Amino acid sequence: MMSPLFERVREIAADILQVPAEQVTPSSSPETIPTWDSVQHLNLVLALEQEFDLQFEPEEIDKMKNIEQILDVLDSKIEAPR
Amino acid sequence: MAISIRPYTEEFTPAVKQFNRRLVEGGVAEEFLFPENHVSDWLPKAPTATVYQEYYVATEDSTVRGAYILKHQQFALNGQEQTVGFYRLPLSEGIVSKAYTSVGVQMLKHALKIHPMIFAMGMGGFTQPLPLMLKAMGWSMQAVPFFFRVNHPARFAMGMSALRTTPLKRLIMNIGAATGGAWAGLNVLQKLRARARDRSVTVERINQFSGWADKLWQDVFPHYVLIAVRSSEVLNRLYCGEGSHYHCIKVLRRGEVIGWAALYDTQMNGDKYFGNLRLGSVVDCLAKPGDETAVIQACVDFLEERGVDLTVSNQTHSSWCAAFKNAGFIQGPSDFVLASSKKLSEVVGTLEKNFGRIHLTRGDGDGPLRLISGTPAG
Predict the structure, then answer these.
(1) b or e along B84-118 (b: 16 or more beta carbons within 10 Å of the residue's beta carbon)?
(2) Is the whole model's pTM more than 0.80, yes or no?
(3) Are residues B105 and A41, on separate chains, in Cβ contact within 8 Å?
(4) Which of A56, B213, B260, B346 would bridge B232 by S-S if both were Cys, CB 3.0 to 4.6 A apart?
């Protein structure tokens, strides 16, 4: 059972990275998704900031190297159930 | 291991060399590598300097995974003096390894924390990775108009003969074809466009800027919504340092200072854009409002007399763009992009709205790097 937070992140990531949603898994990263480059990473960060109405610090962006880690950082910043 | 962004100190020199080596192995051109000396050879930080650069490295433990340069400079923003940052040469290991894709974003956010009012300039066109990132972050962007004037059509034709693919070359070819007389036609076109010389204007070569430049600065800065401080202290640091190859001129009308310019005269050698031409550059300039054309005509005379084949400049302000056209310059295609952060645009207006009221030249940003990459001539 996927968490609501994962579903939201997956939808955003799929949209930004131009891949089918089912291709986005917790282990997805720039190394597993070819379209995930530095520009799209920024677009993903910005889209998440907008979606969750928050700002990531450079240190937090450093921890966002795959979807699982993005969920961890989001978890620590918001109170949404995972 | 976490990425940490910190000032580039001497201990990181070997790690920067290794970082550069990995970039080269990954296909990055050597002209885009990061400086391997932690002390900037251009505008190093100094106790009294108001314009200086600092280097930062993004490290993973003791390994460098990214680096960028931040230039600090005083600007007049709507008449108020404030520090503005210039974001320069961001290099990330993400270029060659997807494990470091986030380093570019981290460096940009780091720079924005130091200077929310920041700009970037150059960047090679709107479709390069950095402009794409800046656009995604909501930065305002415009291409900075490029102007050129051919002084020796025959030498220009020969000097440009090695070039086949640049937009400038194509434009020149089109103009030559359109005027029917090829290079001679271009010369005629420029002369037709150039306004008659103001005979009351004289030029003095200077080695230092002094009180007269400060007075001019005080008189003119309120006319611009954004302009880097051009006091004598700043100008001397930028253009009159030890070993400087700039040609600085003071322009007068009947003995009264109406403006100045910082010029460069360089012999190119197989340059990607300018072949083997002797290239003159109007790097920087300032004038009393209404006297811009007289100052640019003085620049043209000065550089023509030195024997340059081609004179070029990039300008933003509408009065300066008009002055270059009045002096016989032709506007060419430009991949020289100006990008302004959201905070800077909040203060001075977006570039879409206020671009023509901003005075930025090749003396701003990272300076006239490409224009002076040849050998100083004369």
Answers:
(1) bbbbbbbbbbbbeebebbbbbbbbbbbbbeebebb
(2) yes
(3) yes
(4) B213
Cβ atoms of B349 and B225 closer than 8 Å: yes
Closest-CA distance of chain A to residue B137, Å: 7
d(CA B319, CA B259): 14
Q: Cβ contacts (< 8 Å) between B2 and chain A: which residues?
A: 59, 62-63
User: pLDDT (tens digit, 9 = 90+) per residue, B266-296?
Assistant: 999 888 778 888 999 999 999 999 999 999 9
CA distance B212 to B227: 18
Q: Rounded to an integer, what distance in angstroms lies between the CA atom of residue B113 and that of residue B104? A: 14
Q: Which residue has the higher pLDDT, B137 or B374?
A: B137
Contact call for residues B5 and B106 (beta carbons, < 8 A) = yes
Chain A: give the shortest CA distance to residue B326, in Å: 41
In whole angstroms, what is the distance from residue B272 CA to residue B166 CA? 9
- pLDDT for position A58: 84
The total number of residues shown for chain B amounts to 378
ipTM passes above 0.85: no
Q: Is B40 helix (H, G, I), strand (E, B) or coil?
A: coil
**pLDDT, position B185:** 60
Closest CA of chain A from B15, distance in Å: 20
In this predicted structure, the answer to whether residue A80 has a pLDDT above a threshold of 80 is: no
Of the partner residues A29, A31, A38, the one whose CB lies closest to the CB of residue B104: A38
Q: Which of B101, B109, B129 sits opposite A58 (nearest CB)?
A: B109
Q: Evaluate whether B323 touches B295 at the Cβ level (below 8 Å).
A: yes
Report the C-alpha gap between B92 and B67 in whole angstroms.
7
Enclosing H/E stretch for A14: helix A4-17
What mean pLDDT, rounded, does chain A reach? 90
Q: Are B104 and A42 in contact (CB under 8 A)?
A: yes
Asked if B137's CB is within 8 angstroms of A38's CB, the reply is no
Nearest to B178 by CA among B377, B330, B2: B330
Name every residue in B having a CB less than 8 A away from some CB of A: 2-3, 5, 92, 94-95, 98-99, 101-110, 113, 129, 132-133, 136-137
Read off the DSSP letter of residue B126. T
